[in-house]
């Protein structure tokens, strides 16, 4: 992609350095000495005032695919945007704005000054950027709080003994099994010997296949057995000491040092376990596996394909096929998506999810972009067009989302599937308006599809460039037909 960076100061140079090699970058710089310095550093530089038509034409504004403005002078920004749009009405424009002016205000000011309607695609203010960066950092610190406390507790226990019994409820499901396996990996990393146990039968064929195919080592034990008594510490996953776990006697409760669960906390729990026990019980999270993924991610512990597959499937089952997801669940799925062994997943024989469907669903989640209450997701190169509809159906279940479009490239065509539950939107008509001229598009009020031959997009120099160009075109046309502004 050809990127025009207007301004070669500290910001412009740092952006150019970050994009160098991956993009065709041209810097426009007014100062002659600075322009020469940039040129000597290996950048393609055009020296001149970028608010003048002649300079922009010299820089190739008509061939540019993105313009990035780095000046904070509002008058220069306004004039330059007008000149850009005079010479290239379609190129996306990204600009920095002072904190006291918004994008709508800027657009209106340009209209008043130059009597022209112009479009500015992206704008960011330093204060907003700093605020978002700080919020992201606070969230990251918050995510690591619980895992840091878990590690602290395990290290305390390590001073007294190196054996940990990990107990699940009597009839463990994939979420319990995967969570126990993940906790075992964490504990073993810190030098513990671990054993995963349960008290009941595992009879469901999918759960038995889950254990066998993923190599999870579990042992069935009985109440009061020696296996329980010989372990100095007990950890409970996906359960709390109640009727769902019958192997523990009241005397065993004093050795419960760790409880990780996502069900409602028992009111009498503080009365029956040691007060120094580590507790991470989150009813707002829909899967214990998601909590364990957060730990593994925070500790940077390598995850084997079998463990990633176990955790992915555990989340899938406990979130009712990904239909009920908290932010923690979503982050866990995104983290696991590239690590899952989809052949193993397919062999577990769940009839509702094939190998490629699972992969496309993971991509749809990971690559989703949200525009107000609309999701657009690019799943890349695929062979199974039908999986697009399943991915769109799933994304439409996310809270606050009313319209979804999922697209991928199959052979030499862009395949598109869309869904809506917004009563004001006829999605078939929207798809026809957005893509009918380029190929075919239509459907019903709530569901529809479109197909576009790649055509000119095939000129892209590589697959990544092709995907970016397709995504920009599909997103712009769909949002325009929906009358939703990109943000």
UniProtKB/TrEMBL annotation:
Family annotation (Gene3D superfamilies): 3.10.310.30, inorganic pyrophosphatase (n-terminal core), NAD(P)-binding Rossmann-like Domain
One Pfam entry name: DHH
PROSITE patterns: RCK_N
Domain RCK N-terminal: 1-124
Domain of life: Archaea
InterPro entries linked to this entry: DDH_dom (IPR001667), DHH_sf (IPR038763), DHHA1_dom (IPR003156), NAD(P)-bd_dom_sf (IPR036291), Oligoribo/pAp-PDE_c-di-AMP_PDE (IPR051319), RCK_N (IPR003148)
UniProt GO BP: potassium ion transport
GO MF term set: nucleic acid binding
PANTHER family tied to this protein: BIFUNCTIONAL OLIGORIBONUCLEASE AND PAP PHOSPHATASE NRNA
Official protein name in the record: Phosphoesterase
Native source organism of the sequence: Thermococcus eurythermalis
Lineage: Archaea, Methanobacteriati, Methanobacteriota, Thermococci, Thermococcales
């Amino acid at each position: 992609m050809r990127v025009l960076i207007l301004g070669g100061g500290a910001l412009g140079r740092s952006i150019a350095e970050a994009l160098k090699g991956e993009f065709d970058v041209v810097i426009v710089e007014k100062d002659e000495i600075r322009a020469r310095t940039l040129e000597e550093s290996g950048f393609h530089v055009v020296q001149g005032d970028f608010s003048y038509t002649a300079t922009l034409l010299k820089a190739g504004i008509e061939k540019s695919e993105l313009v990035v403005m780095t000046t904070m002078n509002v008058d220069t920004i306004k004039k330059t945007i007008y000149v850009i749009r005079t010479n290239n009405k379609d190129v996306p424009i990204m600009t920095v704005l002072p904190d006291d002016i918004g994008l709508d205000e800027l657009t209106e000011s340009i209209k008043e000054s130059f009597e022209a309607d112009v479009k500015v695609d992206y704008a960011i203010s330093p204060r907003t950027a700093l605020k978002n960066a700080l919020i992201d950092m606070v969230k990251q610190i918050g995510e690591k709080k619980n895992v840091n406390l878990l590690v602290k507790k395990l290290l305390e226990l390590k001073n007294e003994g190196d054996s940990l019994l990990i107990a699940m409820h009597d009839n463990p499901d994939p979420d319990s099994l995967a969570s126990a396996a993940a906790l075992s990996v964490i504990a073993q990393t810190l030098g513990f010997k671990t054993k995963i146990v349960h008290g009941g039968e595992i009879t469901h064929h999918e759960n038995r296949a889950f254990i066998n195919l993923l190599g999870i080592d579990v042992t069935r034990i009985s109440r009061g057995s020696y296996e329980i008594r010989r372990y100095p510490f007990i950890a409970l996953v996906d359960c709390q000491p109640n009727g769902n776990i019958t192997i523990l006697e009241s005397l065993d409760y004093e050795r419960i040092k760790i409880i990780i669960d996502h069900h409602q906390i028992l009111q009498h729990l503080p009365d029956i376990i040691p007060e120094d026990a580590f507790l991470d019980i989150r009813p707002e999270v829909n899967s214990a596996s998601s909590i364990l993924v957060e730990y593994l991610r925070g500790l940077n512990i390598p995850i084997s394909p079998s463990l990633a597959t176990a955790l992915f499937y555990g989340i899938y089952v406990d979130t009712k096929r990904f239909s009920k997801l908290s932010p923690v669940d979503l982050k866990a799925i995104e983290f696991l998506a590239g690590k899952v062994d989809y052949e193993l997943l397919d062999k577990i024989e769940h009839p509702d999810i094939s190998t490629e469907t699972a992969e496309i669903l993971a991509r749809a989640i990971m690559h989703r972009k949200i525009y107000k209450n609309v999701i657009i997701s690019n799943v890349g190169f695929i062979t199974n067009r039908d999986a697009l509809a399943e991915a769109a159906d799933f994304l439409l279940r996310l809270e606050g989302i009313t319209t979804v479009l999922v697209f991928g490239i199959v052979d030499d065509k862009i395949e598109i599937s869309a869904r809506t539950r917004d009563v004001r939107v006829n999605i078939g008509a929207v798809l026809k308006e957005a893509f009918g001229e380029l190929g075919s598009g239509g459907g019903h009020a709530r569901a529809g599809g479109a197909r576009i031959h790649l055509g000119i997009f095939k000129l892209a120099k590589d697959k990544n460039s092709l995907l970016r160009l397709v995504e920009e075109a599909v997103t712009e046309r769909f949002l325009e037909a929906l009358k939703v502004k990109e943000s």
